[in-house]
Design goal:
It is a single chain. By secondary structure, the protein is an alpha/beta fold. The protein folds into two domains: 182 residues, Rossmann fold (3-Layer(aba) Sandwich), CATH 3.40.50; 137 residues, Rossmann fold (3-Layer(aba) Sandwich). 41% of the residues lie in helices and 19% in strands. It is built from twelve helices and 13 strands. The strands form three sheets. Strands 3-2-1-4-5-12-13 form a seven-stranded mixed β-sheet, sandwiched between helices. A hairpin with a 5-residue loop joins strand 9 and strand 10. It starts with a strand and ends in a 5-residue tail after the last helix. The relative contact order is 0.17.
Length: 342
């Protein structure tokens, strides 16, 4: 059997660990051949392939990014895209496809499976941890660790200059990174997309910190919105999945805080630093297990499924269940962090 593998969407620490787990078990235990498709769905769309064997995956466990490359290509938006994907798979002799990606990449896989019967197995990937049907996605732990370290470092410079520091982290629709890193890093305010914030209240928290000679740290997810405003956008352009580019809430918030409180405020935007570099031990462990179980699903002919983490078990769920809705922060969980605000 020949199995195709692709990684789509934003890069993520742990992608190479998944590829390694798939290839090592697939070759050693099942005798499979593997074809990698470069740059997400662009690979099967344009026939851009690379051979995957055991020598190709040696030494990639601790490497960030993906040896296959990635993109946000959506073949369903390309004229004749579905036909071209199927023709490429047939030409390469690919019997099944393992798709590693987030909501958009897996959404394409689910639709192709439903409409064409494509034999596909999904692996969940997003640093935002917003895919439903799985407790955690790999890459999230690394992103939280990077953000927490940044917050730890920013505390000292904030206190030295007695200024407000606003830390903008990733999180378009879900505030998991902001909540986890903010709580772990001792932030004095955490603003997430699920809960519109009151700017006056945020400024009140800031001023209360200065009364005790303590410089506040505010952590804000890129998709957070003020109660009486809209999402801050980088520009009006859309990607192939219809998403606008986010960025700027941190700068906007710092300017508002400085204007209203008279206290100097600066912004640190972590951006792609959160998704780059070496994956954490947890992400290597989770990604490796996902890879091993994904190739097991291929062997079992259990297509249209995605591997998922439930407690400590790896289970299989319909891909559609993972992409049907976004997993957001529950109000009760966010309320727990509120005791530390202000």
């Amino acid at each position: 059997m020949r199995v195709g593998v692709l990684t789509g969407g934003g890069d993520c620490p742990g992608l190479n660990a998944v590829i390694r787990g798939i290839v090592r078990k697939g070759v050693q235990e099942y005798g499979y051949d593997f074809t990698g498709f470069r740059d997400g769905w662009r690979g099967p769309l344009e026939g851009d392939t690379v051979r995957l064997d055991i020598p190709a995956v040696r030494g990639i466990l601790p490497r960030g990014g993906t040896i296959l490359g990635s993109s946000r290509t959506n073949p369903l938006k390309v004229e004749g895209g579905t036909r071209r994907v199927l023709e490429t798979l047939a030409a390469e002799g690919v019997d099944a496809l393992i798709v590693i990606g987030g909501e958009d990449t897996l959404g394409v896989a689910a639709q192709l499976h439903a409409e064409t019967g494509l034999k596909v197995v999904g692996v969940p990937k997003t640093i935002d941890n917003d895919l439903s049907a799985t407790d955690y996605t790999f890459g999230f732990d690394t992103a939280v660790n990077i953000a927490t370290e940044a917050i730890d470092r920013l505390h000292t410079t904030a206190e030295s200059h007695m200024r407000v520091l606003v830390v903008e982290v990733m999180g378009r629709h879900a505030g998991w990174i902001a909540l986890h890193s903010g709580l772990a890093g001792g932030a004095n305010a955490i603003l997430i997309p699920e809960h519109r914030f009151d700017l006056d209240q945020v400024c009140g928290w800031v001023e209360s910190r200065f009364k005790i000679r303590y410089a506040p740290i505010v952590v804000v997810a890129e998709g957070a919105m003020p109660r009486d405003g809209d999402m801050v956008l980088k520009d009006g352009t859309l990607d192939s999945f219809g998403h606008v580019r986010l960025s700027g809430i941190g700068e906007w918030l710092a300017a508002q805080i400085e204007k209203r409180t008279g206290k100097e405020a600066r912004t640190t935007v972590l951006g792609h630093v959160q998704r780059g570099g070496t994956p954490s031990a947890f992400d290597r462990w989770l990604a490796t297990r996902f890879g091993l179980h994904a190739v097991d699903a291929v062997r079992d002919g259990d297509f249209g499924k995605m591997v998922a983490l439930r407690a400590t078990d790896i289970v299989r769920v319909p891909i559609g269940d993972a992409t049907a809705r976004i997993k957001t922060v529950e109000p009760a969980l966010y309320a727990e962090a509120g005791v530390f605000f202000g």
